[in-house]
Amino acid sequence: MSHDDFPTDRPAVVTCGLPYANGDLHIGHLRTYVGGDVYSRALDRLGQETAFVSGSDMHGTPVAVNAEQEGVSPEDFALDWHERYAETFPKFNVEFDNYGHTHDETNTELTQDLVRDLDEAGHLYEKEIMVAYDPVDDQYLPDRYVEGTCPYCGAHARGDECDEGCQRHLEPGEIEDPESTITGNPAEYRERTHEFFAVSEFADYLSEFLDRLEGTSNARNQPREWIEQGLQDWCITRDMDWGIDYPGDDGEQDLVLYVWVDAPIEYIASTKQHSERVGSDAFDWETAWKEGVSDEFPEGGEIVHVIGRDIIQHHTIFWPAMLEATDHAEPRAVMASGFVTLDGKGFSTSRDRAVWADEYLDEGFHPDPLRYYLATNGGFQQDVDFSWDKFAERVNTELVGTVGNFLYRSLLFAHRNYEDGPDADAPSDDVAARIDEAVEDVTAAVNDYSVRALGDAVTDLARFGNEYIQRNEPWKLVDEEPDEAEQVIYDCVALAKAIAVLFEPLAPEKSERLWDQLGEPGSVHDATVEAAGEAPAGDLSEPTELFEQIEDERVEALNEKLDARVAESEDDGGDGDSDDDDDGSDDANDDASDDADMTDIEPLSDDRISFDEFQELDVRVGRIEEADGIDGADDLVKLTVDLGAETRTIVAGLKQLHDVDDLPDTKVIVLANMEKAELFGVESNGMVLAAGEEADLLTTYEDAGPGTKVK
């Protein structure tokens, strides 16, 4: 890989985290895949040689359990979901160059080869560990068959991950008070021989890797805490039948590889399948993935992983260690998305509280508005709240009112007044400069890994176009100053062509339709950013409006339908699942001292706020990374605070009440959606919460990491 600005001469691979072949897709899942598709298409627009790949994650215990419940084999069960995903993604214009799955021959062979390489290089070893065992049912229990208590934070947890608490990866045998999820029986621990990957040997490498890593800040910052706490070696085998056989197993242990061993290797397998289909001259997977294969690019290609933030650890600790140990190219960037909530609450699949992918299409909506909403509604690493009201507002205001309004009024005027299109030598200087600026904004967005900025570049250009046509009023010039009118409309057509090119990553189908209305040859999907500044073809057809207004009555009907479906599911006994929010509250604060002088305490306010108003407060756990006094301010300190999803500058009045040098590494509670303010020339983006006149900083009782929401 390189760290040169895109486009580079190296082959690039953009991957998306593998969807687990175990259930329907909803719009929360789509955020990652739309984001990956948008980013891959944007690289294409820059002229970067790019392969966009993914595949279905077929293995693991949930697949085996659910297959057994349905009376089918795990392979048949997972293949059915794989085929559904392969059909669903194109419906949302998510077009992978290759979409495979982890159980196919290519991935099986590559996985076993890579594990053999790890073994031969001395990075694997056997170890006796305690594995959960159900004595009543007489069977060993893989991690996902076990539930219990997290040994680190005390929360209820799955056997492989503290999914309701600190989010840590858990090794077999770590979970306390284990129970079988199959039978509900208490489990006991028994010794078993398993294979371990010595991840701890790569701590120094991984620390340096994170210094080089590009992408979103949460993917760089979150893993540092795990390294600082000391990396634990990773058990890479499991006691079950469904999965890829451990290549060194003599058959006595019946071990398969842990699903997170073969899942990321599917990125390589899928790229290889793409190369085999198009030919290595078109795309060489080995140059992209292997070190030392290409004399021109000995460090490999540009690997960009687009994932959900819940799998950061796998992509920034385990996976790069595997790649480094086997002479593969390390990732250049990891883009970790936030979650999607629904009206401020978590999705619940068991309560049917979700907007399903097929449901969105069944309502008659076009995929491109949803792509735009998911890609541009907040930064990629931030959580996005979906509601039909917010969706309609964004569509009506930005897609219809800004982009669509400019395109339709400009092209309709052009078509009616100039049969062969307006004629001019070139766009006006200010219009040409504005198009160049938009191309620069798109290039910068790609190199900043910001899919939101890609959308902003287009809407800002359309906003300029609306202002330009309104300011020049060509309908008044067409009779008195026909040459000037023609130049104005030519400029508008040039802007429309630039929008078609630059909007293609976010709205590929609508951009192709616009391209056709402009009479441009070929396909907009093949156009690079250079085409944005080229002269329009001029063979215009009568335009139609690209985006449709969503009326209030439609939104109301959609809300009623969703509410009724959720209520029906709850009446039928839906009990929620791990997608739901859980406040994790306990009685720790009930032990507060009774000695406080109540005369010094302000009375409680009689003014109440609703739960919905409280939900609007975005209160997060943060960790102070740096603290510096502000010149000229007696009380103020400039803090650099890690909020998990990003790092922010916050000004706080702590200088007279705290030792500034002691503040770094302090956990604090931050009101993250406080309005920005400038204090002594420093922009403060948030508020650190503290109690009383002595500014007793609020913190956490347990190990909640930066970015954890307080609720």
UniProtKB/TrEMBL annotation:
Pfam families: Anticodon_3, tRNA-synt_1g, tRNA_bind
Entry's cofactor comment: Binds 1 zinc ion per subunit.
Binding-site positions, Zn(2+): 150, 153, 162, 166
Superkingdom as given in the UniProt entry: Archaea
Biased composition (Acidic residues): 569-604
Keywords: Aminoacyl-tRNA synthetase, ATP-binding, Cytoplasm, Ligase, Metal-binding, Nucleotide-binding, Protein biosynthesis, RNA-binding, tRNA-binding, Zinc
Any single GO CC term annotated in Swiss-Prot or TrEMBL for this entry: aminoacyl-tRNA synthetase multienzyme complex
GO biological process: methionyl-tRNA aminoacylation
List of residues binding ATP: 349
Subcellular location(s) per record: Cytoplasm
Motif range ('HIGH' region): 19-29
Stretch list, region Disordered: 564-607
Ranges of residues in domain TRNA-binding: 613-711
Gene Ontology MF terms in the entry: ATP binding; metal ion binding; methionine-tRNA ligase activity; tRNA binding
Top EC group: ligase
Description of how the protein assembles with itself and partners: Homodimer.
Name of the protein described by the UniProt record: Methionine--tRNA ligase
Source species of the chain: Halorubrum tebenquichense DSM 14210
Gene: metG
